[in-house]
Amino acid sequence: MSVNTGNTAWVLASAAMVLLMTPGLALFYGGMTRAKSVINMMMKSLAALAIVSVLWVLIGYSLAFTEGNPLIGGLSEFGLRGLTSTVGDGGLPDIAFAGFQLMFAGITVALISGAVADRMKFTAWIVFTVGWAAVVYFPVAHWVWGGGFIGADWGALDFAGGTAVHANAGAAALALAIVIGRRIGWPRPAAFVPHNVPLVLLGTGLLWFGWFGFNAGSALAANGTAGLALVNTQVAAAAGILAWLAIERLRGRRPCVLAACSGAVTGLVAITPACAFVEPVGAMAIGVVAGAVCPLAVALKERLGYDDSLDVVGIHLVAGAIGSILIGLLAVPELAGRAGLLYGGGIGLTGIQAGAVAVVVAYSFGIAMIIGMVVKYTIGIRVAPEVELAGIDVTEHAENAYDLPMNGGLLDEPAREDPVAVR
Question: Whole-prediction pTM value?
Answer without folding.
Answer: 0.93
